[in-house]
Fold this sequence. Notes:
A: FAD/NAD(P)-binding domain; 6-stranded mixed sheet; C: about 130 residues; alpha+beta; 4-stranded antiparallel sheet; globular
Amino acid sequence: MSGDGRIVLDGRPIPYRSGDSVAVAVMRAGEHPQHGGTVCLAGDCGNCVAEVDGIAYTRTCQTPARPGLVVQRHPAAGAPPLRAARQIDVTTAPPAGRIPVQRIEADLVVIGAGESGTAAATNARGQGRSVTLLDARDGEEVVGIYAGPTVIVRTPKGMAHIHARDVVVATGAAELHPVCPGNGLIGLVTARAAEQLHTAGVDLGVSVAIGSPPSGVPCTPVGGSLRRIEGVGRVSAVVTVDDDGEGERTTACETVIVGLGRAARTVLWRMADDLPVTVVGPAAQSFPLPEAPTAGTVCPCSRVDVDDLVGVWERGFQDLELLKRAALVGIGTCQGSACLPHLRAFIAERSTAIPEPFTARPASRQITIAEAAAGVHVDAFRRTALHDEHVALGAQMDRFGGWWRPWHYGDHVAEYWAVREGVSLGDVSTLGKLVVSGPDAVEFLERLYPTGVGDIRVGRSRYALLLNDGGHLIDDGMILREAETRFVLTFTSAGAGHAEMWVRDWAETWGLRVHLLDRTMSLAAINVTGPLAGRLLERVGLPSPPRFLQHVHAEVCGVPCHVMRLSFTGEVSFELHHAVDRSVELWRALMAAGRDLGIAPHGLQALQGLRLEKGHVIVGMDSELDSTPRRLGMEWAVKMDKPDFVGRTALARTAGLPDPRRLVGLTMPGSAPTEGSPIWSDRQIVGHVSSSFASPLLGHAVMLGWLKRTPFPDEVMVDGRSAVAVAPPFYDPEGGRARA
Amino acid sequence: MNEFVERRLTLRWQQAKRAYDVVIVGGGGHGLATAYYLAARHGITNVAVVEAGYIGAGNSGRNTTIIRANYGIPEAVRFYQHSLELYQTLEDELDCWMMYTTKGIIWLAHTETAMRAERARSLLNLACGAETVMLTPQEVKALCPQLDLSGGGRYPVLGASYHPAAATARHDRVVWAYAQGAMRLGVHVLQHTRVTGLLRDGARVTGVETSAGPISAGQVLSAVGGNVSTLAAYADVRLPIRTHPLQAFVTNDYEQAFQPILSDTELLCYVSQTERGQMLIGAEFDAQPSYSLKSSFSFLQSSAAKAMHLLPFLRNLRVLRQWTGICDISADFSPILGETGVEGFLVTTGWGTWGFKAIPAGGELMAELIASGRTPPLLEPFRLDRFASDQTMADPGSTGTH
Amino acid sequence: MPALETLPGLRIVASPEALDAAPWSAGTVVLRFAPDDAFAIGATAVDIADDHAIVAEESGFVGRWLTREELDDRLVTHIEWPLPTALPALAQGLIAGVPAKLWLTTDRVLLLCAAAYAAELADRLG
Ligand SMILES: Cc1cc2nc3c(=O)[nH]c(=O)nc-3n(C[C@H](O)[C@H](O)[C@H](O)COP(=O)(O)OP(=O)(O)OC[C@H]3O[C@@H](n4cnc5c(N)ncnc54)[C@H](O)[C@@H]3O)c2cc1C
């Protein structure tokens, strides 16, 4: 402690003494941290919470006073203000103000450093176990015990996440709060709080003690039981009755010290009911319930009176959980610590059994949202090796499938024309790439894919769908054969992670002899596409590039590449797969070599239009969770005469069922309707557009869309205009350009 | 005095009889609403709702209370729009202040892909009679001044869809109001009575076995939320349902300062302020199926971090309480309602993480089905046999959270 | 935190036995990502007794050697999982929320991650 000083209470400086908590300092100044109510100074109740340094609902009894600390009391009625939410110009995140997190491993965590907790800790240490002993009195407030068990603690140094083998809850017992008329006045303290205040030298004025008196505190004990407390704002007298409830006696006083008994602090233990957590000491004891309350505030956190309980009970809410929800008791800051014994007594008096306490949930001590979040990181995004190249070229970057990708470089139509008429580069590094090798490689892939695999010749490749057991499309890509027993599979950028797991799972399930190596993040890939692509590659080391659907290993611009000839854009395309650390070099060399050919990169936006003109489906965009090859018009990619493949059983079963769902091509004059536009026929919605593009080359809109009602109409309405069904591809239907 | 203490509703409990025309298993919103509509719309009052704990003990008393109709397939938009319209007049019908408050929901998009999905949602919703419009970042800011448009420097907002009719209501009151309405018309609600088996006559279900003895019934409806697989197994029905936990947390009460419901398509977290002033934060369901009601710290940690990226003012608010429900999530993320192929046994399930908003329509239409024996048109798409005929109702982009 | 640099090497997927028996030149650090998956840092060739082994040049990882002190001072606060104590050991998990790996020996530690995550990791470690 730093000695004496001043804190600010409601804008007014008040002194504190070394060792004071904020609550004690406030009471030393003759004030109450709230506007009344019994003060326990033990962190149990919510009667001393205030806004401290801008954070409302701070337990002032658990907060050491320090110079300049600003305390603002909550309003007497209503909730504390959301200051930060009122300053509406929060355009950027506030300075991070990182909250440190400590990660601790311990054989045993003991919560509560009282007699029983200290004994448990000493005992365990004696057995050579590592022990972490926590106590709220040292500022170590346990928020909750979670699976693990993991004990989450707020400490003076930040947050601590403690991973324990065992936990001992030794949290002791809390003093009961009085429930009677006038219990919301200023001037009520528990016996232990009175001791604390007296030791700290706080003058309690004329004090009377009810029940077991505090030790060492000057006060007048009054017998009998508490009936009510009188006063205006502050206590002026206490009224007691004898044990028969007769003989009211009024005693004038300034402070009422209550020693009404205790209740075990079981919250943390109850929270952890199926974890290796034991409870010791008073926390494990069962204390007698108080008398059933008859009047006064029963739940100070929610400002609920006994009358409210009675009203709710009489209207049928006769169950602790219903009572809690209807009367809103036990759900405030103290989470029932102050009211639960009284609620149980209330119900016990009216029914045949004493109800079990209600469910205990985190947080048992409230942390801020920033404290809760401390130490966590949001998902990491991936960058391709060419990220900085794209940014330097003015790309607008977008995230897709967990990667940053260029959406466009300023003019997606110009990028489109570069592909259709010249030569263009696309960064396709994000594609999934998986090497499969092993004596059973062919059999494995035959079982995995609905397409034929064994008849793909070495040096050739084939487009393939990946189906799940339901026969529904989950991904697509190429199967490239590198050797008799060695293949490379490609997957979509967004689907690659799942596809890799899927493939590995089946390899395990079938126990086939295959090795798998995921190269997705090890290999970059550049798609060189456009009618001049071949000319460009001739210049940079590929005099006779592979033919359509062939692939070779060759050096391009001096960089070793796996060159795959295929086409998503509809033009001649070569995908150059190469080591990520050579990617910038390759990209720059290609850009330089193609300068006179008008080379320009294209982004995803242009690519989506280009492929749509070809009618190529993008998985997850055009396909839905239950898209079968039949619905997608892709039955040509399925060989039902294979003995088996994943999804075959389902496809065979559903083949005979009526199926009112089809993905079709549509065209219409003019601009492209917004993707997602409903498709209408006879004034009914019969489907929606999944992709659309105003084709610069064709001069009209092309679309893929779902029709979900039979008979499938040939003419429909989209965006208030008439559109006709046209079997894709819309562009170069014979595919001559890609094969050129 | 706390203005939110329940001061109007009355619940009248009855002794169980040995037989009813209809036994509904599960005293959540769907079970109680079905009972109410059976009595109120069809005069079928010899009905019991059998509840293992107390009414609302399941997800109906644990949800984040978002009511909206901005779904992604026409069948769903129409169904939820109908439910939303029932909600709008429910306080009058059931004579209860449910704190129904229209707030509007903003769904933020941070990528082109998300923008595309939200544009599609907006068009489809408008076509199906639910208003959803697109907003620019500036328009979002005008509706939600506290939002950091840079998303903590990491999730810049490109735009959003906005569904102005979205609302919230106090979940418990919805449950109690339906219970009161049903009880007033003679329905029995039997609390602390667990169904442990089904009475069978051959294949037919003829009643329930309970912790308090057998009860026979003309028809049995399962409305047991996340426990549906167990209950259906008693009837030898296997459902395409998995049970996943869903969690949420609230802060202490603060003055009213946050008007809309803010939801994020990428971070999958959402934030609103309750009528009592708590900030209520939810996120997506746990990936691992489980029946555990235990909350996890990783959920609290990650959803707190996500929400702070959007709303920096949250950082200094205090986490009051976190909790978990277990959700019945179907294979296509749409509900499953109606006949099961076993005579006398019906289900209302697959409500997953989004079935609170469906309580009025789900109850009303299930009651109609039970009373008439015919599937109402709005329920037709959600029949169980859609899975066998491969006509599923996939709507993954609309569900999974609230 | 100084930059993470490409760690060239060989990636081998082969039967566990073949990998166990592979002869490496002295001083080569071989990380076993899985029983059938190894990354030999700095290696350029290997003789492996598995006809179907996949042997590929690997440049998809970036990394940096740290002292044990640097690990304790700068990294440990970003790690929410227990570090192995029996050394040497390979540990894999999230570091500052980024998928990463640690090769821990008694005197030094190699931090590595996929090149695609390098920028994020560097950013978060500050
Ligand atoms: C954290 C969370 C947030 C959510 N947020 C939203 C939201 O914002 N908007 C929205 O629309 N939906 C939301 N939901 C979903 C919504 O809460 C549920 O879909 C809906 O409440 C389901 O109602 P129900 O009546 O079908 O099931 P429940 O309310 O779960 O009721 C089922 C009842 O059956 C009882 N029961 C179970 N087994 C038996 C048995 N054997 N015998 C007798 N009784 C039994 C249970 O005790 C329970 O009371 C959320 C869910 C959770 C968990």
